[in-house]
Specification:
With 756 residues, this protein is mainly beta. 4% of the residues lie in helices and 55% in strands.
Length: 756
């Protein structure tokens, strides 16, 4: 049972492409974090763009700009509450389900998105005393523990569920010159859920969740140096970065050393850190009024992130970002669901509200080629609101044709962004987390700080933007036979516009003032699908298949490396982090998804999936003023869609059998393969990509040992120790080099679990 259309329905009867996972499925695949479900889902990619705190969640070719607060094309939801992007990687303990919805979610699901949504639901309290405890140990000194206890307080009226998880693991990348181990885990999480049903017609579910990371951060590995007219070759920088005499001042020698060392060792000139904390509250109240059900979903999210990263991964001071993000978000969604005309007509109408705003000091200290350049503090405070009214209906036309239904939905959304941005000098020589960050009030009203022993006046500039859109869907579905479900749907999706900060100089030689704001991105998507189950004797199977085509207009894309671009000599009005988002052309994305299973006999199941994504820009649309930046190819055919492999495929075999009085033995093996994945915007830049790779994961469990509630499991992920990149650390060609993040090596361990 899934909730892809905001009410419980059978997966085999939902007229959109959906992949769903139960808690048991996640455990059988040794999945401990949401990003790992990509290896079991057709057409879904999780990547690291600049680090784990900036995940790229990609469905049907669409990703977000790696810098800035552009709206997400794919949103993660927890207990029906949309999450900020930098706190959207969730642990997978004690869950009810994880669902992956593909295609535009512009009618019923929270915020508008143009290519998908990933709803995650925690396990709900029940009226039984029950729970579990699990502990495990693995290589890289991985230590983990998790558990849950469900406590009925008042029979059929009040119950509480408490769950938690702790994981600590050494990093798999060694920084030779400092001894730091990067790519580690040091994560804690817990959750408290309360179920209250004071009367038969009222149900309230309250969830408090907490997630904390205290990690060393991600290890960037320099993987290529571009030739030609790039910053390292500029005469003023030669003595620092291209001296040709010593590895201490030459990027080419640094690159050669890295190549010789491989990707599990590196050198760095900074101690990195990644500290993330996310707190969430969701409260869902459902009132049954007979043929009408009233439902309200309130959400609060508070997320903070402090991340010091060595973007180049060398002992040269090329690019070092030191970022602090602190935001809070309030949401509320009111739904009125009804069933009329002898249950032939199902309807839902409602309203949605979201407000996201700073929750403390927000700033980025960016040290680029320092020395001789000086680091700068960049502040960009954004307050975003989104309001929407929506409605949808499904009518059963079985009187005309048995099994025929028609769906229609409409939503109007109003979005607004208000921003204040400023730039000023940072502490020099650069030391992370030592430059004072001006508050939002100081950005608006002005302030003076003493930095490097001298007073620095700070006065931000304010910008704002509004956008709105009418989105819709129309579909037909047909239960052609008891075991065959067909559907066709057409949808309009929308991604909100926004603002670039700070206020650009309208009179500059290369003025960026026309790009102070960017418009919404819109998509029209058509999808056809079939869901079937079959049986031949004792052999059973399922098949889910869909084909789609989406046409995107006004694609939102980031342009990097614009520090000093306007030519006015004033760094305070340069784009934040040298990056702006523009509407740059139109695109067409089409393809198909396939999932199937076959079970020759009870206990044995084979599964497979295959996804094909054909994504092309039909027009580049890059304004001529940016042609010299190298941000995008002049030829649309050379433009890559980052983190969107053309092919993803996988297979699975699961077998479970009783072995006498010992218990039951469960075997699970998965294989996953992705074609070449680009991390930048040039298809011709093969160095900034990951060639096709294959992963194998396996697990063996002995369950209910000797009739007891104890189970023992042994697992291995990336069984054959494949070395592959999971994202780009520096993807701006204008910097003169690129660097990548590499995924986990082979990991293995043992887990013991007891249920009660």
């Amino acid at each position: 049972m899934i909730t892809a259309r905001r009410r419980e329905e059978s997966l085999s009867r939902v007229p959109i492409s959906v992949s769903a996972f139960s808690q048991d499925t996640l455990a059988n695949k040794s999945i401990s974090s949401i990003d790992q479900i990509a290896q079991a889902t057709p057409g879904l990619t999780f990547g690291r763009s600049g680090g784990s705190a900036n995940p790229q969640i990609v469905i049907r070719g669409q990703s977000r700009s790696n810098i800035g607060d552009a709206a997400q094309p794919v949103l993660t939801y927890f207990a029906d509450v949309p999450l900020p992007y930098f706190s959207s990687i969730l642990p997978t303990y004690d869950l009810g389900s994880v669902q992956v919805l593909k295609g535009p979610q512009g009618t019923l699901f929270g915020r508008n998105s143009t290519s998908g949504a990933v709803p995650v639901y925690p396990a709900e309290p029940t009226y039984q005393f029950e729970g579990y405890m699990m502990a495990g140990y693995g290589n890289l000194d991985r230590r983990e523990a998790e558990g849950a206890v469900n406590i009925p307080i008042v029979a059929d009226k009040l119950a509480v569920r408490i769950a938690g998880q702790r994981i600590k693991r050494d990093g798999y990348t060694h920084v030779v010159n400092t001894g730091q181990r990067r790519d580690d885990l040091n994560d804690s999480a817990f959750r408290v859920s309360v179920l209250l049903e004071p009367v038969d017609t009222v149900k309230n579910v309250f969830v408090y969740d907490y997630v904390k990371w205290n990690r060393a951060g991600d290890a960037a590995i320099i993987n290529q140096v571009y030739p030609g007219n790039i910053p390292e070759r500029f005469a003023p920088l030669n003595g620092f970065y291209d001296c040709n005499t010593s590895i201490a001042c030459d990027i080419d020698l640094q690159f050669e050393r890295q190549q010789a060392a491989g990707v599990r060792k590196t050198w760095s000139d900074v101690i990195t850190t990644l500290k993330t904390r996310a707190i969430g509250i969701s409260n869902t109240t459902t009132i049954d009024l007979g043929s009408i059900t009233l439902k309200n979903i309130f959400g609060y999210r508070s997320a903070s992130n402090v991340n010091v990263n060595d973007t180049d991964g060398t002992s040269l001071s090329l690019i070092i970002p030191d970022q602090a993000q602190r935001y809070k978000q309030y949401t509320d969604e009111l739904q009125l669901q009804g069933s009329f005309l002898d249950d032939k007509l199902d309807t839902i109408v409602g309203a949605f509200y979201l407000k996201s705003q700073p929750n403390g000091r927000v700033g980025l200290t960016l040290s680029t080629f320092s020395p001789p350049s000086r680091p700068a503090m960049i502040i960009a405070y954004r307050t975003q609101t989104s309001k929407a009214l929506f409605g949808a209906a499904t009518y059963d036309f079985s009187d005309l044709l048995e099994g025929l239904k028609v769906d229609a939905g409409l939503r109007h959304t109003w979005d607004e962004t208000e921003a204040c941005g400023a730039g000023y000098s940072a502490t020099y020589p650069f030391v992370p987390q030592t430059t004072p960050i001006a508050t939002l009030s100081e950005c608006v009203n002005g302030a003076t700080y003493t930095i490097n022993g001298a007073p620095v006046d700070i006065q931000g500039t304010q910008t704002n933007d509004k956008s709105k859109a009418l989105t819709w869907n129309f579909g037909v579905n047909y239960q052609a036979m008891p075991n065959l479900f067909l559907y066709a749907t057409v949808r309009r999706g929308y991604r909100a516009g926004g603002v670039n900060t700070p206020l650009f100089n309208a009179s500059a030689p290369n003025s960026l003032a026309p790009y102070q704001t960017y418009a919404p991105e819109k998509v029209t998507d058509v999808e056809l699908g079939a869901k079937a189950s079959w049986r031949a004797g004792d052999v059973r199977g399922t098949v889910n298949f869909d084909v789609y085509r989406g046409v995107y207009k006004g694609s939102q894309r980031g342009i990097n490396g614009l520090n000093g671009f306007d030519g006015d000599g004033d760094s305070t009005n340069d784009p934040s982090a040298g990056t702006i988002i523009v509407n740059a052309g139109n695109a067409r994305v089409q393809g198909f998804d396939f999932e199937g299973t076959i079970s020759p006999f009870h206990g044995l199941t084979f599964g497979a999936f295959l996804s094909y994504t054909d994504a092309v820009y039909t027009s580049s649309g890059i304004p001529a003023i940016f042609n010299g930046t190298g941000a995008f190819p002049a030829d649309p055919d050379d433009t890559a869609f980052p983190y969107a492999p053309k092919w993803t495929m996988g297979g699975n075999v699961a077998y479970e059998t009783e072995i006498g009085n010992l218990g039951s033995l469960a075997l699970n093996a998965d294989v996953y393969r992705a074609s070449r994945t680009y991390f930048g915007t040039y298809k011709s830049d093969k160095g900034l990509s990951q060639p096709a790779y294959t992963l194998v994961n396996a697990r063996i469990d002995l369950k209910d040992i000797g009739g007891s509630p104890v189970s023992l499991g042994v697992y291995a992920r990336n069984l054959f120790d494949k070395v592959y990149a999971s994202g780009g650390s520096n993807t701006a060609r204008s910097a003169g080099f690129s660097s990548l993040f590499y995924a986990e090596p082979r990991t293995y361990g043992v887990q013991a679990k007891i249920t009660f």
